[in-house]
Design goal:
With about 170 residues, this protein is α+β, with helices and mostly antiparallel strands. About 20% of the residues lie in helices and about 50% in strands. The protein is built from three helices and twelve strands, in the order E-E-E-E-E-E-E-E-E-E-E-E-H-H-H. A hairpin with a 4-residue loop joins strand 2 (about 15-25) and strand 3. The chain is globular.
């Protein structure tokens, strides 16, 4: 996900699963790339997001959602129950001011968190935002769980976020 390498993964296109494909998620351009050999030549194509349901590369599962009017977005999916966390990834291409020459470089990948419940996607900026989607008693239990497990919603790993969302789904 962080580099230009292609990894073996699977993709569901128009509800049909395709396995063992070389895939790359181009964060900057928000594209899903497929690499294959055709007529003894290496070919790389960009898959149309409106046809892709989801795709997986080792340790990461992504879904493509239509936000309306042909505005398709790619999200990393965390969790399997009613509550899921979505991670939206982005990068910028900026002037590298650490160099004498006018070099440009990609920034480190930045993530934005969302709570996905039903068909609603709500951005989460902090713990208070996250807890606001639950009733008071559940929010208190979740807050206690987060404290006990040292979960920081904005900065923690996908593994810790998975633990959190699984707890929320089992309440």
């Amino acid at each position: 996900m962080e580099d230009e390498t292609f990894k073996k993964g699977s993709i569901t296109i128009n509800d049909t699963l395709h396995n063992n494909l070389l895939l790359n998620y181009d964060i900057y351009n928000q594209k899903i790339l497929l690499k294959f050999i055709q007529n003894e030549r290496m070919v790389i194509i960009s898959l149309p997001k409106e046809k892709v349901n989801e795709f997986s590369i080792p340790n990461n599962r992504f879904i493509v959602l239509n936000k309306g009017a042909w505005d398709y977005s790619i999200y990393e999916l965390i969790g399997n129950g009613n509550y899921r966390i979505l991670l939206g990834w982005s990068k910028e291409f900026e002037l590298n001011d650490k160099s004498e020459a006018a070099d440009y470089a990609f920034t480190k990948a930045k993530r934005t968190l969302y709570l996905y419940f039903g068909s609603e996607i709500n951005e989460i900026k902090n713990k208070k935002d996250f807890l606001s989607f639950f009733n008071d008693s559940d929010a208190q239990s979740i807050k206690k769980f987060m404290k006990q497990n040292k979960i920081r919603i904005k900065h923690d790993s996908q593994e810790k976020l998975t633990t959190l969302v699984n707890y929320c789904n089992n309440m």
